[in-house]
Structure formats: structure tokens, C-alpha cells
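Explain this one:

_____
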Amino acid sequence: MDEIKSQDIKQKAAAPATVAKVGNAAPATPSLPGGQAAPAAGNRNNFRGGAAGGDRNKNFKGGRRGAPRGRNDGMPEEFEQKMLDIARVTRVMAGGKRMRFRACVAVGNKKGRVAIGLAKGADVTGAVTKAVNKAKKEFIDIPIVNETIPHAIYQKLGAAKILLKPAKKGRGIIAGGVVRIVLELSGVKNVTSKILGTGNKVNNAKCIIEALRNLKRFEPKRAKVEKEKAPTLNTMADLTSQNKQ
């Protein structure tokens, strides 16, 4: 009887150890049809059917697709802009006064192209943006000869009167106010100018643009080829001498 009881105690002691071994064992990996192993629970997102199932993360590139889309409200880099005038203007409406801002901007590349723009906006930034957009549509080309203008010009526009004269190299820009800013942006390095009329900045800016637009480029005259003229026979002696020859 003692032997039977000892055997039963040994069997009961061995049973929990077996259960513990089974609990610590790795779970069986299920298989798919065709002998392909199923992915682990933590790697299910990387699974994709087919031969290249595990290469999804390798081929993926972070970030947005294609090039970033940026606003191209841009002016080319060689163009510069300068403020000529900024003013606060009011308009009388039925319910009161409406206040807005007026901006006058000059744009140029210092290589013979320049323009001005005048626009209004609810704020200064909006007015300047509108003025620049207007100026980009109204560029003029200026004939520059030896870093100066080709000839003198007197321009009158409304109450504005401006005189421009060419200058020697090294003389610089002799001008004031908005005339100097426009000439610097146009690329003219030597010129003499004088404002003879009003001091209004907007009118003077329009006048200087009109003066630069009316400049003409002089082309050198081509050398005239002298035509060989046949000798004229005035007397009978000349006629007889030619017949003898």
C-alpha cells in the first residue's frame, strides 16, 4: 500500500511541471495554403501577399509625393522694388468715411528695364502687393549708351516738368526724390536731371517714366558708297577725244 501511495504522489508532482513547460513553449506558427508562413501578430501591418511581401517598408519614402508646391507670386531675383510714396486716403461714403492706403512702388532690374505701379488696399501690405503686380505688367526698355542716356530730353506731364541730360562717365546720378530712385533702378549710372514743376511724388514718377519711354536710340549712319558717275561730254573736243581712245 505504501508503494502505491508513493507512486500517486510522484505522478501528481510531475503533472504541474509538464503544464508549466507547455505554457512556456512558443505558440505554433499557423501556415497558409502553399506552405507560406503567416506573419506574426506584431508584424501584420508589414504583410503583403506575393513574393515581395516584406519589402513594403523598404520601398516607402517618407514625406509628400512630388515636389512641394509653393506660391510663385514672384518676381525674378534680379528685379528690385522700392517704395516711392505711401499715403492714407479717405473716401466719404453714405455711412461715413472709408480709410484706405495708397502705395506707389518702382520696380527695376538695373539693366534697362523699369516700371512703376500705383494701387490702393485696405492695409499697407495689400496695397504694396497690388502695386507690384501692376508694375510687372508695364515694364519699359530704356536705351543706355555708355552708362548714360543717348540724348537730352524735356518732358512735361500735367504739372510735372523734368529735364534729363546725359553725363560723362564717373559723374553719377545728379537727381533728387523719386527721379533718383527710378533712374537707379533703370540702370542709368551717369545722368543730370532737374525737376522744374510740381513736387508731387506720384506725378513726378509718372513723368520720369514717360521721359524714359520717349528716349530714342541713335544708330550710326552707314557709309555711303559713292557711285561712279560717267564723265559728261560737254564739248565736241571731248567727244572726238573719246572716239579716238
About this structure: The helical segments are 2-24, 56-59, 124-135, 178-186, 201-213, 236-244.
